[in-house]
Predict the structure.
Amino acid sequence: MRTDFNKVFFLISIFFLVGCSAIKQEGLSYKVECQALLSKEFKVKLPQPYHLQKENYEEGVACFYSFADGAYIIVFQGAMMKFTIDNYKPCKKRENKHRMVHSGIHNRKYWRKDIIDGVSVYYDNVTKENKSLYNKILDDISIINIKK
């Protein structure tokens, strides 16, 4: 009897952990986030909840967004700052007139780095289940020149 209870508890725990590790894409609520960088600003539609940490330093601005599933997005404009993801070896590269995209897998999680008009946009630590969600976020981000 005790063994059956342990098996059921174990199975329920596994389903709970798997469910918590992915952002459920149906029924998500989104917030449009706008932030100023150095000479640009960006607008991005993000799933809630998320946490924002914005760092201003002498030569740049970085916005770090962290999500409940452990993934994160960085939007950065500036110089003299490198992120861990900058050292990853890309599996895929594509380029057009306005955007350069590098992507790959690191520690069995997906990452991507876009450079759009001098602004670097990253995601990292993304599960296979949530890759399409984060790809859409980066695909849809808007980078706008700040009028002075």
